[in-house]
Amino acid sequence: MVEQRQAMPGANCLECQLRQRNEWHVLTEKEIKLLAQARKSRRYRAGEAIFTAGEPSYGIYCMVSGAAAMRQVDAEGNTVLIQISYPGDTLGYRGLLLGERRRFSAEALGPSRICFIDQQVVKMLMERNPALGLQFLRRINNDLDDAHNKLVQNATLSNRSKFVHLLLNLMNRHGHPAPDGSQVINLPISRRDMASMIGARHETLSRIIGRLEEDGVARFSGRTVCVNRPHSLMEEIRFS
Amino acid sequence: MVEQRQAMPGANCLECQLRQRNEWHVLTEKEIKLLAQARKSRRYRAGEAIFTAGEPSYGIYCMVSGAAAMRQVDAEGNTVLIQISYPGDTLGYRGLLLGERRRFSAEALGPSRICFIDQQVVKMLMERNPALGLQFLRRINNDLDDAHNKLVQNATLSNRSKFVHLLLNLMNRHGHPAPDGSQVINLPISRRDMASMIGARHETLSRIIGRLEEDGVARFSGRTVCVNRPHSLMEEIRFS
DNA sequence: CGCCAGGTTGATTTCGCTCAAGCAATGTGG
DNA sequence: CCACATTGCTTGAGCGAAATCAACCTGGCG
Q1: Contact B148 A147 (CB under 8 A)
Q2: I need a labelling partner for B189 at 20 to 30 A (CA). Which of A31, A100, B120, B144 fits?
Q3: Mutate to test the interface with B, among A78, A101, A134, A137 (most CBs of B within 10 A)
Q4: A59-65: strand order across its sheet
């Protein structure tokens, strides 16, 4: 019975293995119980919205399984994929901590399970345990660092280089090693989204993919990618 | 005597008018006295380094007068100007709060006066007054928002549009209205730096400036810009 | 079955980068 | 004071990369 609960993340915060790897690991057992009592877990279908830009922040979300995309839309209606969140990641802490409206949208990329924790509960926990606030600070700091690194990437690299960088990141998350030493990736997002992530048109990305196949770097088929020699990707980003 | 101290920012935190507009305004009078006792004020010459990427974080800095540039350097040695800081802004809080090394460099853009507050003092103040930590959280959150907005800008806009956006931002900070309704800007940074901010080569920026002059939008002469009709700039960024 | 979103491919044009030369302002050592 | 290097900026020519416009394919899905 106990084993069963441990094997089912999202059922109870106390036994949730993911907690060890995110902001909540600084909480005491008593505080965790409060968290477990207040959190609501629910499933999302692929493409379902978690929250939308402009709406108030009611609380924060904790990814249990699946993946989620954060999208930002600019004045002209262009939508850009900012980040992908994975199990253990906390979502929507920004608007919450400041009591602001959502500045971007979040959407489930596939079937996902996500816990929701109400604003009041988070505030209460942060007052009881100041280390929690520091954890969020650390988290937001890393996000800012990522954003700055992407800024210099966008400023200096070619579209091809940017895409290779993206592909390497996706490989780290979604890659499975094949017996012959190659890596097989199941892409969680569409090509349009990948194009938006590197700031290119989707037609351009299509051509870049074609050239990568010509050069024997990788083979693309739908959302499945096979990177022949992962090292060749690493080397590619050394030049330009 | 008291008036004289009020008229001289950087001499004493208690009378510093800038404090009303930054993170420190949540401190009690007693805490401000601690701050005033610990802070060291000093002048910087134009171009002088405040801190450099890779070095440890000894404390944080508070701009009193002048302006400072935050620069990030990527693997290829390209340097990108990330942000400009102005009087009242706090500098270098990121590395400090996490006890990390500096991830970017900061440098005075002109003759500036900047206060330094030691790491230990900040930690002590944050423990005494939890609201201070929340202020830094708010600050870092806004920075992250700026970075995300720049990301979608870089992804979707042309170099010309990006430069017009930059010019509008600089106008808000450095513009002076002329009697004929035009705005005169004294640029704080070189064209190379402006080019890096929009992710373009400096030659390209030079051509963009030429085209803006052809179109009668603005006149450039050294570091002085005259925007004929500020409204025309606003309108320009509506299309494309 | 037709419709539609997502993806590919082609033709054409525009934009921005590279390489290169030249120029003005500033600094420097003799 | 001059010859000289240095730095920041501009301008030109040529080229390559990427955007645009368009046609077409493909696999769901009502």
Answers
A1: yes
A2: B144
A3: A137
A4: A40-44, A112-118, A59-65, A90-91
